[in-house]
Design brief:
The structure is a homotetramer. By secondary structure, chain A is an alpha+beta fold. The first copy, chain A, has two domains: about 150 residues, Four Helix Bundle (Hemerythrin (Met), subunit A); about 210 residues, paralog of FGE (formylglycine-generating enzyme) (Alpha-Beta Complex), CATH 3.90.1580. Chain A has nine helices and twelve strands. A four-stranded mixed beta sheet of chain A has the order 10-9-8-11. A three-stranded antiparallel beta sheet of chain A has the order 1-4-12, with helices on one face. In chain A, helix 1 packs parallel to helix 5, helix 2 runs parallel beside helix 4 and helix 2 runs antiparallel to helix 5. The longest helix of chain A has about 30 residues. At the A-D interface, strand 3, helix 7, helix 8 and strand 8 of A face strand 3, helix 7, helix 8 and strand 8 of D. Chains A, B, C, D: Pathway: Amino-acid biosynthesis; ergothioneine biosynthesis. Chains A, B, C, D: Keywords: Iron, Oxidoreductase. Chains A, B, C, D: This is Ergothioneine biosynthesis protein EgtB. Chains A, B, C, D: InterPro entries: CTDL_fold (IPR016187), DinB-like (IPR024775), EgtB (IPR017806), Sulfatase_Mod_Factor_Kinase (IPR051043), SUMF_dom (IPR005532), SUMF_sf (IPR042095). Chains A, B, C, D: One of its GO terms (biological process) is ergothioneine biosynthetic process.
């Protein structure tokens, strides 16, 4: 697939993800982590307009002068922007205008690509595609959160389903030694995956399965949410202050546990991997089992021998720069570097992750409190 | 006009007010005072369903069992309800479903009225009409706030325009004495307008005009927002903490003052009455002029001799029960009584007030900090 | 007693109130309503220094240049001041330096009074005495709050004891008519007690007793704190958000109710008047009894025939200016006028009130949520 | 020095640190990070009482039954405790009672040590000594914060002075390779310093000096606090929201920078190392220089060749468990493990650190926003 095809496919997929939504669903922001779907649609478009068209297409006329302000996310170098927590108050431009905006920019980029642009354009379009793919995944989280907040729990179809973790439990062993970590070669990756470098890793054993909802329910029933010894001090306060006693999207009704999925509210399936847990909960669960979460380096080493891709897997590694990491100059340099503090790494991928992002060097990250993402738990034991 | 006609007219008018909106505009809640227009549409309908149809129409089937929960406002006696500050997260039911709900209930009430119901039904429908008319006015405030929050300041037409206060300034004198205050007779009024009772009032003079934007600008230019001596202690802290230095909807651009109106952002017209000010600002302005705001009793006495109805006029009276006030039993008794604390009275009416509410005994009330209503200032002087 | 004697007695009494305290008790501010005792000691002194000595004693040298900043309360006209909620962080100047400051200023005022000063000085000293007497009462509230917050509930002696309300319950009747309200004559009163003016009052009956702890306990046991129909909307939210289910200083232990008093934690005495309740609670209690709180005007009219002075009695009147009220010029004009919004009137006096303040025209006021004051409940019925 | 001597010396030193304080200074808590000095005095004593005497001295009678509740810090396993942010409201027990408590427990421990206790007691006393030494350092930070908050900037003497960083700037080179990190052998260390393990480190160069106030001032004057490109996203929001534009304890007066030190407010000495900066500021400074902060592993490797001990040095490492880390059982296991999230490591020591803590494996940690500690900046460059 050439770049133009890849670009068009990406643009189309974003719109497909949104296709089951009603106009009203595009607008709201029930928590600050969630952005309105219309904002995602516009912001990913703005990215191409601002980084590519404005700079490299002299004949380009911006679709609307206000949009640079309205749909910038956090790029300080590109000027003022709507406050993040006010995205859900923006009713104008309407959803249909935003779809026109998409069409307009998609077509302009397509023409630019047809004109044999130089390498800088191609690299920026590549980043733009990857950026939009990241937002596709966020759209999945946000749509689920928005619909899961409705007291009516609307069903919109059978999206992003997980498969049961029914294979036999095994503990895979890995030996201590120096390993090469990070992305190598010239193919695309995000800035935080480089440079590739050596890391010394001690012996460890990793599970070949994700923790299931059934297993997590045992933790709950054993008082896991009430035993402070299992928790980080910060996590303990967080669950107390927010009254958390189950994963997000779980609801206790008439003595049974239900879970909101895209196809509505249903009884939980105990064999599916547990999802929508914070790193605090993942850590407490591992503690309760007498085990621990992997480091991101252990995960990367083990990734060849394990099945992954259902859910992002919380690690016990902080999002920190690799040795020799340097930020790019200008706005594009704001990509990941400024988030290298108080964010925890998740490795792998989820059912909402685009295939292009299935790299075992990919470093996803969220604050430890995040629960709206498609996250799961994989356990590690120290070698006996 | 008979009750059925009045009912149908009211229902229709609510929808007319919303007709310039795009679907997205119906959904959001930028501040807690504002309710999403779709919520108003549904809540006023729910009121008829819950108080009239459920109780008095045995053949009635509720439109949807969840709606009692979704669209209750603050009637504790009628069970659980959506938290007020979460109204703006409700995307479902969609706007079009809510319009169906309106149709369904309107038609059921119409049939019930056709069936010669007893007096209790008629009284409740009357309250329901007045309740919906109150929400029509709130809709005007809320729509203005929602659109006025958009960075693009959309123009939707020439609604709720004010006329210039261009008549000659006069000071009307009123003599001390015992006056009868409150609603008399059997026609409809809200519970807080009764009982009618005697109040002794001292000599005073009242302006025959509202304060204009031009006059208010003088206050601003004289440093009115910076002189704590003019303000209540609470008001002073409020404007400091919220960075307030002009009425709501005013914007300072390139050295000029603009105001958002339904037809867009325009330079202020100095001859129009100033609006969108809190009671704090009204009080500080009066102080600056060496005058004061009227009491609600003075206003009622003077109302016969003044022109009113452009803007609600802040008084210096607190919303307290009239002597002998008693709450009705049950849910309907929650109407005004529970708001008789820390709310200030506004008298008169605004251009967004329905004609049926033009009563000089009408006691509107808001917290002193409210600025999104169509409120204005009328001055009073003590007699020399 | 001449003015000098009155002045010296007042200064001494403030120090007597503080005499049971340990140094540590003088320093802290557990809630924003409470000021550290050392702050009261200094602020009342600063008032004399700033309003009298600095202006009228040319030979006077300020004790310390920083104190004007440190011990100003809310007089904006007198410049910057310590933020109210940071008073409890001020360890310096020490308690002993503040006592020196008191001595220094007391002596300077005494000399000034001996020098036959003109009437303005005499009036300001009179205000200063009354101001310090108000702070004596606040000291009683604050000391009780500070000590009542200690997990060890220290006993410091038998201060400010109440007597049982054991006289027979009677309902005193008052007839409708025009009454003269407010302070008359030339003796001292605060600015908000004037001008005297006529008010028309309807028939009412007032209890000759305060509500007792035993009676209030019946309200509690009947679910008074759980029945929203009894509460203002604002009050209901307040008790929910703050988890309030009894008066302040009450503690439930092993099935019994205890109350912190200055002599320690003891079982409640059911015959004493209930205290430390907010206006919300007073109102809900009255509602539960099918009665109401008096207006401040009813209270003033009835005061001649009732016993009062144990506890400040919540009224259902807001703190608003009397007809013809005007603020004094300058800093002294900031006294009460700027608090004439969202404050409720209490009438009478408490056991912590100085005898000089026993005026039936005295208008005390607090926000409806205040519970740390010595407040009580007296009921009123409309005439049958 | 034997254990008893070490114990007694430690107990004495804590009291020496507090000796310049007035009683009032012992009580307050101006920010949640700061604990009142009297709380430190009591809490370190409670630690010996609770972990040693209560468990291992059968004849011991607790000094006061309430103290276990009052002076527990965060040991959930040992029951309820005063909320951290309410420590500054505790006036009782008084400072003098707390000194009696210290005497009582010191003497009881001394007797226990004289009785040839078994190894568990000795190990716990050793932890207790180290625990108290940690609090000695916190006392230095807290006392400085409390006094530095006083508008009068009291001078209490020449404590904890720094020396100028006047030696010649050099860049020390270190070669990539596998290094052994963490505490080895049987001498005392905290739980987070173990187990010792191998880490692979890349080439780097480290400065032989700390960044000085003069150098930091250049950053400030170059607009460092206004250039978002230099900051973490979280750090940028933090300084915006808190109005930070200089290190803590710096004050701009009449065009000059002053700093509060224990001997009062003085002009800054440009040659001293900059202190009282958050990790955000340390990071931004390093960014501005085109360099970076060391990792904790680099620091440990380089520590043999550099001078350190003036200020704790922020690293770019998160506080995470070493491979193979396990928590001890019971309350003592709560020591460091539960803080292994969203805390950044500082290495080295400060002038307020006891000599017993001068270990190059010591892992101090604070949230990135902490500014009240004695923290500084050392730069690292990647090898060219």
């Amino acid at each position: 697939m050439n770049l133009t095809e890849q670009f068009l496919k990406t643009r189309e997929k974003t719109e497909t993800i949104c296709s089951p939504l009603q106009t009203e669903d595009y607008v709201v922001q029930p928590i600050v982590d969630v952005s309105p779907p219309k904002w995602h649609l516009a912001h990913t478009t703005w990215f191409f307009e601002q980084f590519v068209l404005v700079n490299f297409d002299q004949s380009y006329k911006v679709f609307h002068p206000d949009f640079a302000f309205l749909f910038n996310s956090y790029y300080n170098n590109l000027g003022e922007r709507t406050l993040r927590h006010e995205r859900g108050f923006m009713t104008r431009p309407s959803v249909s205008v935003i779809y026109e905006y998409r069409k307009y920019v998609t077509s302009a980029i397509q023409q630019l690509l047809d004109s044999k642009p130089d390498i800088e354009v191609i690299q920026l379009v590549e980043i733009g595609i990857n950026h939009e793919q990241q937002h596709q995944e966020l759209l999945a989280y946000d749509i689920k959160y928005i619909l899961g907040t409705q007291p009516t729990f609307p069903a919109i179809g059978d999206y992003f389903g997980l498969k049961e973790e029914s294979h036999e439990q095994k503990w895979l062993s890995f030996s201590e030694g120096l390993y090469e970590i990070g992305h190598q070669g010239n193919t695309f990756c995000f800035d935080n995956e480089r440079p590739s470098h050596k890391v010394f890793i001690q012996d460890f054993q990793m599970s070949n399965k994700l923790v299931t909802k059934g297993e997590f329910l045992e933790f709950m029933e054993d008082g896991g949410y009430k035993n402070f010894n299992l928790w980080h001090d910060e996590g303990w306060h967080y669950i107390q202050n927010n009254g958390i006693n189950s994963p997000l999207h779980w609801h206790h009704k008439n003595g049974d546990w239900y879970e909101y999925q895209f196809n509505g509210l249903d009884k939980i399936n105990l064999k599916l991997p547990v999802s929508h847990i914070s790193m605090y909960e993942a850590y407490a669960y591992a503690n309760w089992k007498g085990m621990r979460l992997p480091t991101e380096f252990e995960w990367e080493v083990a990734s060849q021998q394990i099945e992954w891709g259902q859910l992002w897997e919380w690690t016990n590694s902080a999002h920190l720069p690799y040795p020799g990491f340097t930020q790019a100059k200008g706005a594009i340099g704001e990509y990941n570097g400024k988030f290298m503090l108080n964010q925890m790494i998740l490795r792998g991928a989820s059912v909402a992750t685009t295939h292009d992002h299935l790299r075992n060097t990919y470093r996803n990250f969220f604050p430890a409190s995040s629960r709206w993402a498609f996250s799961g738990i994989r356990l590690v034991k120290n070698q006996n």
